Amino acid sequence: MPTLTEARLTLLRRRIAESGGALSGPADETRPDTRTETPALFGQFGIAERRMWKIYELDPESVSHNIGLVLEFGGSRTVESVVAAAELLVERFEVLRSVVEVDDADVPHRVQVQREGQWDTEHSVWSWGFEDVADESADTDPAEIDPAEIDTVATRMTRTPFDLFSEVPLRLRVSGRDGEVTMILVVHHLAVDDTSWPLLLGTLVSGEWAGDADADSRPATPDAAAATEAAESAVRHALSTWAAEDVRHPLSGELPAESAAESWLSPMDDRAGLKVAAPVADESLTAFDRVAQTVGATPNALLIGVCSLAAYALTGASDHVLVVPADNRRRSQSPHHIGYCGNIIPMRFRVDPTATVEQTLRTAAAVIYRAMEHSGTDFGPILTALRQQGGRFPIMEIMASVRPAPLRGIPQPDHAPVTCRSVFNGIANYPLSIAFEADDHSTHVEVDHQPGIVPDHIAVRSTGVLTALVDLIPAALDGTVAELLANLERRVPA
User: Fold this and answer.
1) Taking the domains of the chain in order of start, what are their residue ranges?
2) Distance, CA of 26 to CA of 70 (rounded, Å)
3) What pLDDT, in 10s, does the model give residues 261-317?
4) For the domain 22-216, what is the CATH superfamily, name and number?
5) Intrachain domains 22-216 and 223-404+426-491 with the same fold
6) Span 17-65, pLDDT tens digits
7) Which residues contact 219 (CB under 8 A, 6 or more apart)?
8) Domain covering 223-404+426-491 in this structure, CATH number
9) Which residue blocks in 273-356 are alpha helix, DSSP H?
10) Distances from the Cα of 108 to the Cαs of 16, 45, 47, 49, in angstroms?
Protein backbone atom coordinates (compact mmCIF):
# COMPACT_ATOMS: atom_id res chain seq x y z
CA MET A 1 0.00 0.00 0.00
CA PRO A 2 1.37 3.48 -0.81
CA THR A 3 2.85 5.49 2.03
CA LEU A 4 0.25 7.75 3.62
CA THR A 5 2.07 11.07 3.39
CA GLU A 6 0.78 14.16 5.17
CA ALA A 7 -0.19 15.69 1.82
CA ARG A 8 -2.25 12.65 0.88
CA LEU A 9 -3.78 12.50 4.36
CA THR A 10 -4.85 16.13 4.08
CA LEU A 11 -6.39 15.51 0.66
CA LEU A 12 -8.23 12.42 1.82
CA ARG A 13 -9.52 14.10 4.99
CA ARG A 14 -10.95 16.84 2.77
CA ARG A 15 -12.64 14.26 0.53
CA ILE A 16 -14.11 12.46 3.53
CA ALA A 17 -15.38 15.74 4.99
CA GLU A 18 -16.92 16.80 1.69
CA SER A 19 -18.73 13.48 1.46
CA GLY A 20 -20.21 13.95 4.91
CA GLY A 21 -18.06 11.33 6.63
CA ALA A 22 -15.28 11.41 9.18
CA LEU A 23 -11.79 10.05 9.66
CA SER A 24 -12.94 7.82 12.47
CA GLY A 25 -16.26 6.28 13.43
CA PRO A 26 -18.66 4.16 11.37
CA ALA A 27 -17.51 3.08 7.94
CA ASP A 28 -18.49 5.15 4.93
CA GLU A 29 -17.49 2.70 2.21
CA THR A 30 -20.94 1.08 2.29
CA ARG A 31 -23.91 0.85 4.56
CA PRO A 32 -23.24 -1.57 7.45
CA ASP A 33 -25.70 -4.23 6.39
CA THR A 34 -25.63 -7.53 4.54
CA ARG A 35 -28.58 -6.92 2.24
CA THR A 36 -28.22 -8.64 -1.10
CA GLU A 37 -31.82 -8.40 -2.21
CA THR A 38 -32.65 -7.41 -5.74
CA PRO A 39 -33.94 -3.83 -6.01
CA ALA A 40 -37.68 -4.00 -6.57
CA LEU A 41 -37.78 -1.22 -9.14
CA PHE A 42 -35.43 0.18 -11.71
CA GLY A 43 -33.42 3.00 -10.20
CA GLN A 44 -32.60 1.48 -6.83
CA PHE A 45 -28.93 0.60 -6.40
CA GLY A 46 -27.69 -2.90 -5.74
CA ILE A 47 -25.26 -3.45 -2.87
CA ALA A 48 -22.14 -3.47 -5.07
CA GLU A 49 -23.34 -0.31 -6.82
CA ARG A 50 -23.64 1.42 -3.44
CA ARG A 51 -20.03 0.52 -2.73
CA MET A 52 -18.91 1.81 -6.14
CA TRP A 53 -20.98 4.98 -5.68
CA LYS A 54 -19.25 5.80 -2.39
CA ILE A 55 -15.91 5.52 -4.19
CA TYR A 56 -17.20 7.86 -6.89
CA GLU A 57 -18.48 10.40 -4.35
CA LEU A 58 -15.06 10.60 -2.70
CA ASP A 59 -13.46 11.71 -5.97
CA PRO A 60 -15.86 12.46 -8.83
CA GLU A 61 -12.99 13.83 -10.93
CA SER A 62 -11.31 10.44 -11.02
CA VAL A 63 -11.13 8.47 -14.27
CA SER A 64 -9.98 5.28 -12.56
CA HIS A 65 -13.30 3.52 -13.29
CA ASN A 66 -13.68 4.69 -16.90
CA ILE A 67 -13.63 1.76 -19.35
CA GLY A 68 -12.77 2.58 -22.95
CA LEU A 69 -13.10 0.29 -25.98
CA VAL A 70 -12.53 0.77 -29.72
CA LEU A 71 -14.72 -1.46 -31.89
CA GLU A 72 -13.97 -1.96 -35.59
CA PHE A 73 -16.90 -3.15 -37.75
CA GLY A 74 -15.96 -4.62 -41.13
CA GLY A 75 -17.54 -6.47 -44.00
CA SER A 76 -21.17 -5.63 -44.68
CA ARG A 77 -21.68 -3.27 -41.73
CA THR A 78 -22.58 0.27 -42.70
CA VAL A 79 -22.26 3.42 -40.64
CA GLU A 80 -26.05 3.62 -40.49
CA SER A 81 -26.40 0.01 -39.27
CA VAL A 82 -23.88 0.58 -36.46
CA VAL A 83 -25.66 3.78 -35.43
CA ALA A 84 -29.00 1.95 -35.51
CA ALA A 85 -27.58 -0.76 -33.22
CA ALA A 86 -26.29 1.93 -30.87
CA GLU A 87 -29.69 3.63 -30.76
CA LEU A 88 -31.36 0.28 -30.02
CA LEU A 89 -28.86 -0.35 -27.23
CA VAL A 90 -29.44 2.94 -25.43
CA GLU A 91 -33.20 2.62 -25.88
CA ARG A 92 -33.33 -0.79 -24.17
CA PHE A 93 -30.33 -0.67 -21.78
CA GLU A 94 -31.87 1.51 -19.08
CA VAL A 95 -28.77 1.83 -16.88
CA LEU A 96 -26.88 3.46 -19.74
CA ARG A 97 -29.42 6.24 -20.22
CA SER A 98 -29.78 7.33 -16.62
CA VAL A 99 -28.25 9.85 -14.25
CA VAL A 100 -27.88 9.58 -10.48
CA GLU A 101 -29.83 11.55 -7.90
CA VAL A 102 -29.23 11.47 -4.14
CA ASP A 103 -32.19 12.00 -1.81
CA ASP A 104 -32.29 13.78 1.54
CA ALA A 105 -31.26 10.57 3.29
CA ASP A 106 -28.11 10.40 1.12
CA VAL A 107 -29.47 7.38 -0.77
CA PRO A 108 -28.54 7.33 -4.48
CA HIS A 109 -30.90 6.16 -7.19
CA ARG A 110 -31.07 6.28 -10.97
CA VAL A 111 -33.37 8.47 -13.02
CA GLN A 112 -33.89 7.82 -16.71
CA VAL A 113 -33.21 10.73 -19.05
CA GLN A 114 -33.67 11.26 -22.74
CA ARG A 115 -30.56 11.76 -24.86
CA GLU A 116 -30.39 12.02 -28.64
CA GLY A 117 -27.51 11.09 -30.88
CA GLN A 118 -25.98 13.89 -32.92
CA TRP A 119 -24.38 13.91 -36.37
CA ASP A 120 -21.67 16.41 -37.18
CA THR A 121 -22.23 18.94 -39.97
CA GLU A 122 -20.66 16.59 -42.56
CA HIS A 123 -22.82 13.67 -41.44
CA SER A 124 -19.62 11.66 -40.98
CA VAL A 125 -19.39 11.39 -37.16
CA TRP A 126 -22.26 10.37 -34.88
CA SER A 127 -21.99 10.79 -31.11
CA TRP A 128 -24.25 9.99 -28.19
CA GLY A 129 -24.15 10.77 -24.47
CA PHE A 130 -21.63 13.60 -24.50
CA GLU A 131 -20.51 16.75 -26.19
CA ASP A 132 -17.70 15.64 -28.49
CA VAL A 133 -14.46 16.03 -26.56
CA ALA A 134 -12.33 15.62 -29.69
CA ASP A 135 -10.06 18.46 -30.76
CA GLU A 136 -12.30 20.72 -32.83
CA SER A 137 -9.26 22.42 -34.34
CA ALA A 138 -8.29 19.25 -36.19
CA ASP A 139 -9.02 19.56 -39.92
CA THR A 140 -8.79 15.85 -40.73
CA ASP A 141 -11.90 14.35 -42.34
CA PRO A 142 -13.34 12.17 -39.52
CA ALA A 143 -14.30 9.52 -42.07
CA GLU A 144 -10.64 9.11 -43.02
CA ILE A 145 -9.03 9.30 -39.60
CA ASP A 146 -6.24 6.73 -39.18
CA PRO A 147 -5.97 4.26 -36.26
CA ALA A 148 -3.41 6.35 -34.39
CA GLU A 149 -5.70 9.36 -34.50
CA ILE A 150 -8.67 7.22 -33.47
CA ASP A 151 -6.67 6.07 -30.45
CA THR A 152 -5.89 9.69 -29.60
CA VAL A 153 -9.59 10.57 -29.62
CA ALA A 154 -10.44 7.39 -27.69
CA THR A 155 -7.83 8.17 -25.06
CA ARG A 156 -9.16 11.70 -24.67
CA MET A 157 -12.71 10.42 -24.27
CA THR A 158 -11.62 7.73 -21.79
CA ARG A 159 -9.60 10.15 -19.68
CA THR A 160 -12.41 12.68 -19.31
CA PRO A 161 -14.28 12.30 -15.99
CA PHE A 162 -17.99 11.46 -15.88
CA ASP A 163 -20.33 13.80 -14.02
CA LEU A 164 -22.80 11.08 -13.12
CA PHE A 165 -25.23 13.59 -11.61
CA SER A 166 -25.87 15.15 -15.00
CA GLU A 167 -24.16 12.89 -17.54
CA VAL A 168 -25.21 9.40 -18.60
CA PRO A 169 -22.50 6.78 -17.90
CA LEU A 170 -21.91 6.02 -21.59
CA ARG A 171 -20.21 7.85 -24.46
CA LEU A 172 -20.43 6.62 -28.04
CA ARG A 173 -18.71 7.95 -31.14
CA VAL A 174 -19.15 6.35 -34.58
CA SER A 175 -17.13 7.31 -37.66
CA GLY A 176 -15.69 5.87 -40.87
CA ARG A 177 -17.20 4.55 -44.06
CA ASP A 178 -19.30 1.49 -44.89
CA GLY A 179 -17.30 -1.68 -44.33
CA GLU A 180 -14.78 0.19 -42.15
CA VAL A 181 -16.78 1.63 -39.26
CA THR A 182 -15.16 2.57 -35.96
CA MET A 183 -16.99 3.00 -32.67
CA ILE A 184 -15.39 4.48 -29.56
CA LEU A 185 -17.27 3.32 -26.47
CA VAL A 186 -16.54 4.68 -22.99
CA VAL A 187 -18.58 3.58 -20.00
CA HIS A 188 -18.30 4.16 -16.26
CA HIS A 189 -17.79 1.01 -14.19
CA LEU A 190 -20.83 1.92 -12.05
CA ALA A 191 -22.97 0.96 -15.05
CA VAL A 192 -21.29 -2.31 -16.12
CA ASP A 193 -19.11 -5.23 -15.16
CA ASP A 194 -17.73 -8.19 -17.13
CA THR A 195 -21.16 -9.85 -17.11
CA SER A 196 -22.63 -6.86 -18.98
CA TRP A 197 -20.68 -7.37 -22.22
CA PRO A 198 -22.81 -10.17 -23.74
CA LEU A 199 -25.86 -7.91 -23.62
CA LEU A 200 -24.15 -4.61 -24.38
CA LEU A 201 -21.65 -5.68 -27.03
CA GLY A 202 -23.86 -8.50 -28.26
CA THR A 203 -26.46 -5.93 -29.27
CA LEU A 204 -23.89 -3.77 -31.06
CA VAL A 205 -22.35 -6.73 -32.90
CA SER A 206 -25.62 -8.32 -34.01
CA GLY A 207 -27.64 -5.16 -34.51
CA GLU A 208 -30.46 -6.81 -32.53
CA TRP A 209 -31.35 -6.68 -28.84
CA ALA A 210 -29.34 -9.55 -27.38
CA GLY A 211 -31.46 -10.05 -24.27
CA ASP A 212 -30.34 -11.39 -20.91
CA ALA A 213 -29.50 -14.88 -22.11
CA ASP A 214 -27.31 -15.68 -19.08
CA ALA A 215 -30.03 -15.10 -16.46
CA ASP A 216 -30.81 -18.77 -15.81
CA SER A 217 -27.16 -19.61 -15.17
CA ARG A 218 -26.83 -17.07 -12.36
CA PRO A 219 -27.52 -17.92 -8.69
CA ALA A 220 -30.73 -16.88 -6.98
CA THR A 221 -30.68 -14.21 -4.27
CA PRO A 222 -30.38 -15.77 -0.78
CA ASP A 223 -32.93 -14.96 1.88
CA ALA A 224 -32.04 -12.58 4.72
CA ALA A 225 -31.15 -15.30 7.22
CA ALA A 226 -28.83 -17.06 4.78
CA ALA A 227 -27.21 -13.76 3.79
CA THR A 228 -26.54 -12.83 7.43
CA GLU A 229 -25.04 -16.23 8.22
CA ALA A 230 -22.87 -16.04 5.10
CA ALA A 231 -21.64 -12.54 6.00
CA GLU A 232 -20.66 -13.63 9.51
CA SER A 233 -18.79 -16.60 8.08
CA ALA A 234 -17.01 -14.33 5.58
CA VAL A 235 -15.85 -12.02 8.36
CA ARG A 236 -14.52 -14.95 10.39
CA HIS A 237 -12.64 -16.18 7.33
CA ALA A 238 -11.20 -12.71 6.76
CA LEU A 239 -9.96 -12.35 10.34
CA SER A 240 -8.26 -15.74 10.20
CA THR A 241 -6.59 -15.17 6.84
CA TRP A 242 -6.30 -11.98 4.74
CA ALA A 243 -7.31 -9.50 7.46
CA ALA A 244 -5.13 -10.93 10.23
CA GLU A 245 -2.79 -8.56 12.05
CA ASP A 246 0.40 -10.27 10.83
CA VAL A 247 -0.21 -9.70 7.10
CA ARG A 248 2.69 -7.76 5.53
CA HIS A 249 2.95 -5.55 2.47
CA PRO A 250 4.37 -7.85 -0.22
CA LEU A 251 6.30 -5.10 -2.04
CA SER A 252 8.23 -3.95 1.02
CA GLY A 253 7.93 -6.97 3.31
CA GLU A 254 6.96 -4.63 6.14
CA LEU A 255 4.07 -4.66 8.56
CA PRO A 256 1.64 -1.74 8.22
CA ALA A 257 2.90 1.41 9.92
CA GLU A 258 -0.23 3.58 9.87
CA SER A 259 -2.79 3.57 12.63
CA ALA A 260 -5.96 1.61 12.07
CA ALA A 261 -7.93 4.85 11.55
CA GLU A 262 -5.47 6.21 8.98
CA SER A 263 -5.35 2.92 7.12
CA TRP A 264 -8.96 3.36 6.01
CA LEU A 265 -7.98 6.45 4.04
CA SER A 266 -4.81 5.14 2.46
CA PRO A 267 -6.40 3.22 -0.45
CA MET A 268 -8.55 6.16 -1.56
CA ASP A 269 -6.04 7.87 -3.81
CA ASP A 270 -5.62 7.34 -7.55
CA ARG A 271 -2.18 7.15 -9.07
CA ALA A 272 -0.99 7.34 -12.64
CA GLY A 273 -0.09 3.94 -13.99
CA LEU A 274 1.61 2.12 -16.83
CA LYS A 275 0.37 -0.96 -18.67
CA VAL A 276 2.33 -3.65 -20.51
CA ALA A 277 1.10 -6.83 -22.20
CA ALA A 278 2.58 -10.05 -23.54
CA PRO A 279 1.09 -13.07 -25.36
CA VAL A 280 0.87 -16.48 -23.72
CA ALA A 281 1.92 -19.32 -26.02
CA ASP A 282 -0.97 -21.55 -27.13
CA GLU A 283 1.06 -24.74 -26.69
CA SER A 284 1.95 -23.71 -23.12
CA LEU A 285 -1.72 -23.20 -22.30
CA THR A 286 -2.58 -26.62 -23.71
CA ALA A 287 -0.01 -28.24 -21.44
CA PHE A 288 -1.19 -26.04 -18.58
CA ASP A 289 -4.75 -27.32 -18.95
CA ARG A 290 -3.41 -30.84 -18.34
CA VAL A 291 -1.73 -29.57 -15.17
CA ALA A 292 -5.08 -28.24 -13.98
CA GLN A 293 -6.56 -31.72 -14.31
CA THR A 294 -3.61 -33.18 -12.39
CA VAL A 295 -3.97 -30.86 -9.39
CA GLY A 296 -7.77 -30.89 -9.40
CA ALA A 297 -8.37 -27.25 -10.25
CA THR A 298 -9.95 -25.31 -13.08
CA PRO A 299 -7.53 -23.64 -15.51
CA ASN A 300 -8.69 -20.23 -14.29
CA ALA A 301 -8.03 -21.11 -10.65
CA LEU A 302 -4.63 -22.46 -11.60
CA LEU A 303 -3.75 -19.19 -13.32
CA ILE A 304 -4.49 -17.37 -10.06
CA GLY A 305 -2.07 -19.84 -8.48
CA VAL A 306 0.48 -18.79 -11.08
CA CYS A 307 -0.10 -15.16 -10.05
CA SER A 308 0.73 -16.16 -6.47
CA LEU A 309 3.96 -17.84 -7.57
CA ALA A 310 4.75 -14.77 -9.66
CA ALA A 311 4.20 -12.51 -6.65
CA TYR A 312 6.66 -14.64 -4.68
CA ALA A 313 9.19 -14.67 -7.54
CA LEU A 314 8.95 -10.90 -8.04
CA THR A 315 8.85 -9.72 -4.43
CA GLY A 316 10.30 -12.53 -2.34
CA ALA A 317 7.15 -12.45 -0.15
CA SER A 318 6.32 -16.09 0.56
CA ASP A 319 3.30 -14.99 2.61
CA HIS A 320 1.15 -12.51 0.69
CA VAL A 321 -2.39 -11.42 -0.12
CA LEU A 322 -3.77 -11.20 -3.64
CA VAL A 323 -7.03 -9.38 -4.36
CA VAL A 324 -9.17 -11.23 -6.92
CA PRO A 325 -12.29 -9.75 -8.57
CA ALA A 326 -15.37 -11.94 -8.87
CA ASP A 327 -18.83 -11.81 -10.41
CA ASN A 328 -21.71 -11.46 -7.97
CA ARG A 329 -24.67 -10.84 -10.29
CA ARG A 330 -27.87 -12.60 -9.24
CA ARG A 331 -30.46 -14.25 -11.45
CA SER A 332 -32.94 -11.39 -11.38
CA GLN A 333 -30.32 -8.63 -11.71
CA SER A 334 -30.33 -8.09 -15.45
CA PRO A 335 -27.42 -5.95 -16.67
CA HIS A 336 -29.75 -3.40 -18.24
CA HIS A 337 -31.40 -2.80 -14.82
CA ILE A 338 -28.49 -3.23 -12.41
CA GLY A 339 -25.01 -2.04 -13.36
CA TYR A 340 -21.90 -2.99 -11.40
CA CYS A 341 -22.27 -6.31 -9.57
CA GLY A 342 -18.61 -7.12 -9.09
CA ASN A 343 -17.06 -8.29 -5.85
CA ILE A 344 -13.55 -8.31 -4.39
CA ILE A 345 -12.15 -11.51 -2.89
CA PRO A 346 -8.84 -11.20 -0.99
CA MET A 347 -6.84 -14.43 -0.71
CA ARG A 348 -3.85 -15.14 1.51
CA PHE A 349 -1.23 -17.46 0.05
CA ARG A 350 1.78 -19.02 1.78
CA VAL A 351 4.46 -20.45 -0.51
CA ASP A 352 6.94 -23.03 0.81
CA PRO A 353 10.05 -23.01 -1.40
CA THR A 354 10.88 -26.60 -0.34
CA ALA A 355 7.48 -27.98 -1.39
CA THR A 356 6.96 -29.49 -4.81
CA VAL A 357 5.37 -27.36 -7.48
CA GLU A 358 2.44 -29.78 -7.70
CA GLN A 359 1.75 -29.59 -3.96
CA THR A 360 2.11 -25.80 -4.04
CA LEU A 361 -0.49 -25.54 -6.79
CA ARG A 362 -2.81 -27.90 -4.90
CA THR A 363 -2.44 -25.74 -1.80
CA ALA A 364 -3.08 -22.60 -3.81
CA ALA A 365 -6.24 -24.13 -5.30
CA ALA A 366 -7.48 -24.94 -1.80
CA VAL A 367 -6.91 -21.32 -0.74
CA ILE A 368 -8.78 -20.07 -3.81
CA TYR A 369 -11.78 -22.34 -3.39
CA ARG A 370 -11.99 -21.65 0.35
CA ALA A 371 -12.02 -17.91 -0.33
CA MET A 372 -14.54 -18.24 -3.15
CA GLU A 373 -16.98 -19.88 -0.74
CA HIS A 374 -17.53 -16.33 0.52
CA SER A 375 -17.84 -14.65 -2.87
CA GLY A 376 -21.59 -14.23 -2.40
CA THR A 377 -20.98 -11.71 0.41
CA ASP A 378 -20.11 -8.26 -0.88
CA PHE A 379 -16.73 -6.84 0.11
CA GLY A 380 -18.29 -3.63 1.49
CA PRO A 381 -20.12 -5.13 4.50
CA ILE A 382 -17.03 -7.20 5.34
CA LEU A 383 -14.97 -4.00 5.44
CA THR A 384 -17.61 -2.36 7.60
CA ALA A 385 -17.51 -5.22 10.09
CA LEU A 386 -13.71 -5.14 10.21
CA ARG A 387 -13.67 -1.40 10.79
CA GLN A 388 -16.36 -1.50 13.47
CA GLN A 389 -14.25 -4.08 15.31
CA GLY A 390 -11.29 -1.69 15.31
CA GLY A 391 -9.42 -3.46 12.54
CA ARG A 392 -7.41 -1.88 9.81
CA PHE A 393 -7.92 -1.69 6.08
CA PRO A 394 -6.58 -4.91 4.57
CA ILE A 395 -3.38 -5.19 2.57
CA MET A 396 -4.33 -4.67 -1.08
CA GLU A 397 -1.16 -4.13 -3.10
CA ILE A 398 -1.54 -6.80 -5.79
CA MET A 399 -4.65 -7.62 -7.79
CA ALA A 400 -4.81 -10.82 -9.84
CA SER A 401 -7.53 -11.78 -12.28
CA VAL A 402 -8.45 -14.15 -15.09
CA ARG A 403 -11.05 -12.59 -17.34
CA PRO A 404 -12.67 -13.00 -20.73
CA ALA A 405 -11.99 -10.40 -23.39
CA PRO A 406 -15.10 -8.23 -23.95
CA LEU A 407 -16.05 -9.96 -27.23
CA ARG A 408 -15.37 -13.50 -26.05
CA GLY A 409 -18.30 -15.81 -26.75
CA ILE A 410 -20.28 -13.19 -28.65
CA PRO A 411 -21.32 -14.68 -32.02
CA GLN A 412 -20.07 -12.82 -35.06
CA PRO A 413 -21.38 -13.24 -38.60
CA ASP A 414 -18.69 -14.13 -41.13
CA HIS A 415 -19.80 -11.32 -43.41
CA ALA A 416 -19.48 -8.65 -40.68
CA PRO A 417 -16.47 -9.28 -38.41
CA VAL A 418 -15.90 -7.07 -35.37
CA THR A 419 -12.67 -6.50 -33.46
CA CYS A 420 -12.19 -4.84 -30.10
CA ARG A 421 -9.27 -3.25 -28.28
CA SER A 422 -9.12 -1.64 -24.87
CA VAL A 423 -8.12 1.94 -24.14
CA PHE A 424 -5.96 2.48 -21.05
CA ASN A 425 -7.35 5.17 -18.76
CA GLY A 426 -3.88 6.02 -17.42
CA ILE A 427 -4.69 4.95 -13.86
CA ALA A 428 -3.47 1.94 -11.92
CA ASN A 429 -6.07 1.11 -9.27
CA TYR A 430 -3.58 -1.02 -7.33
CA PRO A 431 0.21 -0.77 -7.06
CA LEU A 432 0.45 -3.96 -9.16
CA SER A 433 -2.33 -5.61 -11.18
CA ILE A 434 -1.95 -8.89 -13.07
CA ALA A 435 -4.57 -10.09 -15.52
CA PHE A 436 -4.78 -13.07 -17.84
CA GLU A 437 -7.26 -12.15 -20.60
CA ALA A 438 -8.57 -14.62 -23.17
CA ASP A 439 -10.59 -14.08 -26.32
CA ASP A 440 -11.91 -16.85 -28.57
CA HIS A 441 -8.51 -17.40 -30.16
CA SER A 442 -5.65 -16.45 -27.81
CA THR A 443 -4.61 -15.43 -24.30
CA HIS A 444 -2.35 -12.65 -23.15
CA VAL A 445 -1.19 -11.26 -19.83
CA GLU A 446 -1.55 -7.59 -18.87
CA VAL A 447 0.29 -5.91 -16.01
CA ASP A 448 -0.53 -2.45 -14.69
CA HIS A 449 1.67 -0.81 -12.10
CA GLN A 450 2.13 2.45 -10.23
CA PRO A 451 5.62 3.84 -10.97
CA GLY A 452 7.36 5.00 -7.83
CA ILE A 453 5.40 2.52 -5.73
CA VAL A 454 6.37 -0.65 -7.56
CA PRO A 455 10.18 -0.92 -7.91
CA ASP A 456 11.39 -0.74 -11.49
CA HIS A 457 13.01 -4.17 -11.42
CA ILE A 458 9.66 -5.75 -10.53
CA ALA A 459 7.77 -3.86 -13.23
CA VAL A 460 10.35 -4.76 -15.89
CA ARG A 461 10.28 -8.49 -15.11
CA SER A 462 6.56 -8.92 -14.48
CA THR A 463 5.22 -10.05 -17.86
CA GLY A 464 8.31 -12.19 -18.51
CA VAL A 465 7.94 -13.95 -15.16
CA LEU A 466 4.25 -14.67 -15.72
CA THR A 467 4.58 -16.05 -19.24
CA ALA A 468 7.69 -18.04 -18.30
CA LEU A 469 5.90 -19.66 -15.35
CA VAL A 470 3.12 -20.85 -17.67
CA ASP A 471 5.82 -22.29 -19.93
CA LEU A 472 7.86 -23.94 -17.17
CA ILE A 473 5.30 -25.33 -14.71
CA PRO A 474 4.02 -28.32 -16.77
CA ALA A 475 7.49 -29.90 -16.77
CA ALA A 476 8.35 -28.85 -13.20
CA LEU A 477 5.59 -30.46 -11.12
CA ASP A 478 7.86 -32.97 -9.38
CA GLY A 479 10.56 -30.42 -8.57
CA THR A 480 10.56 -27.90 -5.74
CA VAL A 481 9.43 -24.31 -5.94
CA ALA A 482 13.01 -23.23 -5.26
CA GLU A 483 14.18 -25.20 -8.30
CA LEU A 484 11.40 -23.70 -10.41
CA LEU A 485 12.41 -20.19 -9.39
CA ALA A 486 16.08 -20.91 -10.12
CA ASN A 487 15.10 -21.99 -13.62
CA LEU A 488 12.90 -18.92 -13.90
CA GLU A 489 15.82 -16.71 -12.90
CA ARG A 490 17.86 -18.09 -15.77
CA ARG A 491 14.95 -17.46 -18.16
CA VAL A 492 14.09 -13.97 -16.87
CA PRO A 493 17.14 -12.52 -15.07
CA ALA A 494 16.63 -9.92 -12.36
Assistant:
1) 22-216, 223-404+426-491
2) 42
3) 888 876 666 789 999 999 999 999 999 999 999 999 999 999 999 999 999 999 999
4) Chloramphenicol acetyltransferase-like domain (3.30.559.10)
5) yes
6) 544 444 433 333 333 344 444 444 578 999 999 999 999 998 899 999 9
7) 330, 331, 376
8) 3.30.559.30
9) 282-295, 299-315
10) 17, 7, 11, 10
